[in-house]
Amino acid sequence: MGKVVYEKSKGLTDNPLSYCPGCLHGTIHKLVAESLVELEVLDRAVTVASVGCSVVAYQFFNCDAVQAAHGRAPAVATGIKRVSPDSIVFTYQGDGDLAAIGMAEIVHAAHRGENITVIFVNNGIYGMTGGQMAPTTLITQKTSTSPFGRKEATTGKPLKVSEMIAQIPSAYYIERVSAHTVPHLVKAKKAIKKAFENQIHGKGFSMVEVLSTCSIGWHMTPVESLSHVENSMMPYFPLGVYKDEGEVIS
Amino acid sequence: MKVLMKGNEAVSEAAIRAGCKAFFGYPITPQNEIPEYMSQKMEASGGCFVQAESEVAAINMIYGAATTGTRVMTSSSSPGIALKQEGISFMCAADLPCLIVSVSRSGPGLAGILPSQGDYFQATRGGGNGDYFIPVYAPNGVQEATDFVQKAFDVAEKYRTPVMVLVDGMLGQMMEPVEFKKPVINEYDKSWVVGARSGRERNVINSLNLLPESLEQTNITRFRKYDEIIANETLFESTVADGDEVAVVAYGTPARIAVNSIEELRADGIKAGLIRPITLWPFPEAAFAKLPASVKHIVVVELSQGQMVQDVKLAVGGRLPVHFYGRCGGMVFESSEIAGQVKKIVRGE
């Protein structure tokens, strides 16, 4: 008999993933699911799904789930956590959801120091609606609503969410990681697990921003997409810990 | 024992006594005494209070807290209720119970802070997307407001729906003696809630449904629930009696004013009675089904340019003339003003 050295996390359901080929949502889901299982909190975890490609995340995380309106996941998570403090509550949001329509909700969840965990997946585009420009879209990047490339003069520069949220006094832990290579996934897993540990220990607001891909929206092959994260996104969105134990890391 | 309390504070106290364990709100005049009262009392009663960053956030916090099966409440006023419509639609779609207290001011836009009934459509038709209704109670004073707050929690849990108590700013701000009754607390099925999971299958609270066959069936099922609410929860009062020539229709504080108008009319030899819808949705169509043959005129009075009058016309179905008199912008009619209008109508002026 062989020995089981790897298996699908019990933190994921058996539903087949509906994400596009080359998309990293499935991989990031796995990191979250493994963290919940390893920390033995799966049976008291509540995921709050957002609107975007991960609108269907409730089908995949093997825990209680609530599907929120566009951008409102941190408010919904606040409501759940405040009345059910033993639940481990996390939002899973994309950059259109969190950095545009939901900016007020994420800022004020951090501002109140809500004891929740936020997984923020940044691929610089609205994937689900067909590849429109997001606040995180890079300058010159072509999308379906910036067909000539994002222009700073009319749309500003991409929002650096982790840097911004780290400045909020009551935010406890903010880190930006990436999901595009195996070594980066190891670091991303560590950050995600830490963000949940913080909640378990009642430390307050933790957010992990995960740089990710959108091969379809970017009009790239999956392999080209991984290179795009390394060569184009990472120089503008530097990886690292922006806040730890409530202290800004400069 | 009766205590003298301001409407806004009385509904807050009633909610706490009914077991409300979470309040999420945002400041807006003329309902500020509600979040203020809750900030002072909620923690001591073992509940939580959060002043949200917006009405949008507040209703979404309510959405989240409601998924755990906790009794939850928010309050706001006209433009704030407008912002909550997104969350109300989502809560209806996810079949989640909550109480929304709406203390309406005059509109549209930022407008004024004085009493108005310009939010009848907002309450009964909603502004959120999709096919849904919510039960709306329209108390005529502080006592009824506290009674309906307590009833609303029960109705919300029984049918798994948001319920609104709609008062105008006058009722929110005025003080009246009130007696807090023992709240009805029934046990309903809570197998659907999230959080505190021990051994059970995981639960999902969701409104996304991309399969048309399935979504149609979900909506039809929800409308069967609405049929039950219509059958069981519709409330009105009527003093229209055989021999009355006029039926005056009013809800909320104008119904209190209209009581005096009717006395004044009777003193002048015009027999009139009052129909007072207590639930605005479901609208009490039955109140208009069997009016005495003596009734020749229906006069609807509202603190608006005419909103409930449309429901009255639908209920009357063209059988009788339906007249309207309203004031708006924060202007409130005197009882004699309503009586004067009714006299003109009766005399054909």
Percent helix of chain A, as a range, is 25-40%
What is the CATH superfamily classification of the largest domain in chain B? Thiamin diphosphate (ThDP)-binding fold, Pyr/PP domains
The rounded distance between the terminal residues' Cα atoms of chain B is: 49 Å
Question: Mind summarizing the main beta sheet of chain B?
Answer: 8 strands, mixed
Which CATH architecture of the largest domain in chain B is right? 3-Layer(aba) Sandwich
Structural descriptors:
heterodimer, A: alpha/beta, Rossmann fold, two-stranded antiparallel ribbon, 9 helices, 19% strand, B: alpha/beta, eight-stranded mixed beta sheet, 11 helices, 21% strand
Structural features, described:
The complex is a heterodimer of chains A (250) and B (349). Chain A has helices at 25-38, 73-83, 95-101, 103-111, 152-155, 161-166, 182-200, 215-218, 222-236; strands at 45-49, 64-67, 88-94, 117-122, 125-126, 132-133, 171-178, 205-211, 240-244, 247-248. Chain A has one domain (25-248): Thiamin diphosphate (ThDP)-binding fold, Pyr/PP domains (Rossmann fold, 3-Layer(aba) Sandwich). The mean pLDDT of chain A is 97. Chain A is built from nine helices and ten strands. In chain A, helix 1 packs across helix 7 (182-200). In chain B, helix 3 runs parallel beside helix 4 (78-93). By secondary structure, chain B is α/β, with parallel strands linked by helices. In chain B, strands 2, 3, 4, 5, 6, 7, 8 and 14 form an eight-stranded mixed β-sheet that branches. A five-stranded mixed β-sheet of chain B has the order 11-13-12-15-16, with helices on both faces. In chain B, strands 1-9 form a two-stranded antiparallel ribbon. Chain B is globular, with a radius of gyration of 21 Å. Chain A binds chain B through residues 43-44, 46, 48-49, 55-56, 58, 62-69, 72, 75-84, 86-87, 104-105, 107-108, 111-112, and chain B through 21-22, 24, 48, 50, 52-54, 56-58, 60-68, 70, 72, 86-87, 90, 94, 194-198, 202-208.
